[in-house]
Design a protein that fits this description.
single chain, about 60 residues, HMA_dom_sf, HMA_dom, Heavy-metal-associated_CS, metal-binding, metal ion binding
Length: about 60
């Protein structure tokens, strides 16, 4: 799954997003590209759950199809 994520600017953002997604699935693979404003995630969760988890951390996200 790939997401466009707003407000990502630093390492703290990367850790917050990675942590939010890994709380949904501890074995999730998460790759954050700050320069592109994207997150690629592979885990046992739905895109909607991932969007909700990132938004709860303060990072509005939309799934990219």
């Amino acid at each position: 799954m790939q997401f466009a994520v707003e407000k990502m600017t630093c390492g703290h953002c990367v850790r917050a997003i990675t942590g939010a997604l890994q709380r949904l699935d501890p074995h999730a693979r998460v790759s954050v590209d700050l320069s592109q404003g994207t997150v690629e995630a592979h885990g046992d969760f739905s895109p909607a759950d991932a969007v909700t988890a990132m938004a709860a951390e303060g990072y509005p996200a939309t799934e990219q199809l």
